[in-house]
Each structure stands twice: as C-alpha cells, then as structure tokens.
Amino acid sequence: MSESTEIPVADLSAQLPPREHSLGMHLAMILAIVVPLGGVIAAPFFVWGWGFHWADLGILLGMYVVTVLGITVGFHRLFVHRSFETYLWLKFIWVVLGSMAVQGPLFRWASRHRSHHQHSDTPEDPHSPQYGGGGVSGLLKGFWHAHVGWLFDPDPPGLDHYIKDLTASRTLRVASRLFPLWVALGLVLPAVLGGLITQSWRGVWTGLIWGGLVRVFLVHHVTWSINSACHLWGRRPYKSGDESRNNALFGILALGEGWHNTHHAFPTSARHGLRWWQIDISYWVIRTLQLLGLAWNLKLPTTEAQAKSRRTA
C-alpha cells in the first residue's frame, strides 16, 4: 500500500470578486431540487391502482447504485482526489454516470469539492454546517446551508485554479460540457427500461418516476448528507483538523462515503472504510476494476499512517 498524499491546491492569495450565478443557473438549481421532490410526492398518487412492481423497484435500485457510484467512484475518488488511475474511455463513462446524478457538471463539482477540502469547516468552506449560530435554530440553519443552501451561493473566487489538471483533458472538457445531455439520458434510460421490461406505457411512466425523479431525489439527499450530517453527527477516530465524522448509516446509503472522518484524514485514499466491518461498496468497485486490469495506482494509507493519525482519546 502506498501512503496517501495531498492534492496540491492553488495559491488563492490574489482575491478575485465572487462570481454570481445567472438567473438561469438559479432556476436550474431550483428545478433540480423541486422537480425530484415533486416526483416523490406525486409518485404514490400517480401509480395508485397500478401497483409498485418488482420492475419498478429494480429500476429504482439499479439507477440509484450506478449514479451514486458515478459520484463516489467517479467524480469524488477518481477526479477530485485521484485515488486511482484508469483508461480515458472509462473516465468518460464515469463522467456520464456522475452527471446523471444531476449535481452539476464535473468541473464545477470537482472545483467546489477541492475548495471544501482546502478550507474544511472554516468560514471559507463552501458548505460547512458549523457557522449557523448557537442553539437549535443555529444548528438547523447550519444544517440547511451545508445540505442544500450552499448551492445558491455565488462561486468562490479562483475556483478554476483547482481543476487545471482536469481541464487540460479535451475528453473531460467535452464530457463535462455535455452535462445536460447526460441528465436527459438519466431520465430517458429508466423510462425505456420500464417500457421494455413491462412491455407497456405504464412501465415507461413508472420507470421515469421511480428510476428517474424519485431516484434523483434520493441520490441528492443521501449525498448532500455527507456535507451536512457527516460534519455534525458520528465518530471521529482520526485527527483530520475539522469536524468530519464517520456515520455508519451514510456509510451504507452513500456506498462508502459516510466514513467521512477517515476520508478527511486520508483524502486521497481509494478506500474510506478502512476497518473490515466498514462497508465501502465504492472501494469494492474500484478493487474489482483493479482485478480486471481496468484500474491501477490505487492509493491507500499505510498502517503506520493510520496509527499516527488515530486519536488517542
């Protein structure tokens, strides 16, 4: 195993004015939050009397797993932290799968996340829950900001400097720019699967609802909980210099991302669940790719590094 090393970050000493989002960007973010929520609310009424069949459940779970992996394995561990290396064609596929989670284009996602790691739980952190104020109202305010409110903030200055390694690739530039196409694909695909499996128009619509809108809603709130819940509740076995926590619930739901304190202690590690009982499906996928010859240069913290970083109290 090779010891994890930090990703270099840009010198942001030159202060640039914040970049405001356009009205279109604000509307797009509102739609990305409200439309899936509307789908969740409408779903039981829409399918009332039709039933919720095994095909709907299978499409929902299948689309959930592949798009969460698109974020966890692709956007996060591969592109942001360079935890392993793979072929360019496979990188393109990971961009597509991550984009289908509807959390923004690769470049914006990666730049904001690298900024988060540089400034974790400081006032410059784009989504820390620690600065909402005191009391229950402060906790709720901080939670809301970390969970979803930060999406409406202007981009911090100098974000593009965080992703020069990514923007140097023409393939990644094209893949990131085609984000709207991948979002549409993530909605059309479950609809088509539903129609093909059930051989009915009912299957088309329920596939769209459960595998599309409901799935996006679930992926959003599970992965956003890493920013919010996993910086408020859980255990802190390692010294990470911030308030990141290991949360077993989101370790399972987010396919390994919930071991968040471990991740912040060893940010470039391909494996977040370092203990045998810490389920980390994302790492299992990366390890499988390695066994198939499709991934290499996996970064893992040494036993000595883990012992040095472990809290004594």
Structural write-up:
With 313 residues, the protein is mostly helical. It has a domain at 23-234. 57% of the residues lie in helices and 1% in strands. The chain is built from 13 helices and 2 strands. It has a two-stranded antiparallel ribbon with strand order 1-2. Helix 2 (54-80) packs across helix 3 (88-99), helix 2 packs parallel to helix 9 and helix 8 (179-198) crosses helix 9. The radius of gyration is 20 Å and the shape is globular. The two termini are 27 Å apart. Mean pLDDT is 87; it is low at 1-21.
Question: How is the secondary structure organized here?
Answer:
Layout lengths: L22 H24 L7 H27 L4 E2 L1 H12 L6 H13 L16 H13 L16 H4 L2 H8 L1 H20 L2 H27 L20 H6 L6 H6 L15 H11 L3 E2 L6 H7 L4
Helix pairs in contact: 1-9, 2-3, 2-4, 2-8, 2-9, 3-7, 8-9
Summarize the entry for a quick read.
By secondary structure, the chain is mostly helical. Helices cover about 55% and strands about 0% of the residues.
Keywords:
single chain, 313 residues, mainly alpha, two-stranded antiparallel ribbon, 2 strands, globular, disordered N terminus
Taken from the alpha-carbon principal axes, the silhouette is: globular
Distance between the first and last residues' Cα: 27 Å
* Biggest β-sheet description: 2 strands, antiparallel
Rounded to an integer, what's the Rg over CA atoms?
Answer: 20 Å
Strand residue content: under 5%
Helix residue percentage: 55-70%
Mean pLDDT equals: 87
Q: Low-confidence parts lasting 5 or more residues at pLDDT below 50?
A: 1-21
**H and E string:** HHEHHHHHHHHHHEH
